[in-house]
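Pilot study result, target chain (136 residues):
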Amino acid sequence: MSERSEIPGQPYVSRPGPRQGSDDARVASRAHLFGLANLVSWPLGMVGILLVYYTRGRRSPYVRHQAAQALNFWLTLSMVIICLIVNWLTLFVGSLLGIFVVFLIVWVYGLVMGAVGAIAARSGRSFRYPLTAAVF
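Predicted structure:
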């Protein structure tokens, strides 16, 4: 599957697609869904994504790419949430409501983007999360 670069004027970038006759789309979708577990029990979601990345990512470039995208997104979101918690602990005076509102926005954003990523991967499309720091 070949898609245009997200930067105007850049050449085509080849992004891997699921292999014909395989369950790559289903497994890639699971990588995105494992990330949603971070919203309930924080480190378990990233452990699930890493399991998909290391077990099935060696066989399929599509699964590896989607698991890396999910891992980058959830690592970035985890860093934001940790910063919010540290901010709440150190600047408690008058900022509790503001930090709670930002935390709620970040939580809903993670929920929506994780679901969108899972749906896109399940349909065989390559998905890239917006506002993500590239680690993998």
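One observation from the pilot: The longest strand covers residues 2-3. A full batch analysis is planned for the follow-on phase.
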